[in-house]
Amino acid sequence: MNEEYVELVLSAVELVPPGRVASYGDIAEFVGRGGARQVGQVMSRHGAAVPWWRVVRSDGQPARGHEQEALARLEAEAAPTRAGRVDMDRGRFDFGETSPRMNFHRGSQGP
DNA sequence: AATTTGACGACCG
DNA sequence: TCGGTCGCCAAAT
After folding, report:
1. Taking the domain A3-92, which CATH number applies?
2. What is the mean pLDDT of the segment spanning A82-92?
C-alpha cells in the first residue's frame, strides 16, 4: 500500500462534511482502488489525521474499537444517529454531489 | 507458497 | 434483528 493511495483515501475522507458520513465501501468506490478493507487499513494507521469518525460501516455502526469516541463526535455535529448507529438513509454523504473539479484523483478533465 | 489478519460488506436462515 | 458464512484485497506471517 503506497503513500499515494493513503493520501487519496485521506483526501476523500476530508470531503465528508460535518454531520454526514461515508462507509468504508463508499470511500473505496470513490477513490476507485482497493476495497473497503484497504480503506480500513488506511484509517487504522493514518486516520488520526482526518475526521475518521465520519467513516462508518455500511450498516451505520462506527469503527470497531472506537464506538464511544465516534458516537460522541457524530452526535456533537448533529449526525442522524439512532440506537448507537448512524441512520445511513439520512446521514450518508453522496460523493456524487461533490464539485466535478474534485475528480483530481481520477485524472479526468471533467465534463 | 500457504495461511492468517484486519477501523469491511453482502447474503442467508 | 442477529449470528454465521463467505467474498474481498493487500499485507504480514
Report:
1. 1.10.10.10
2. 97
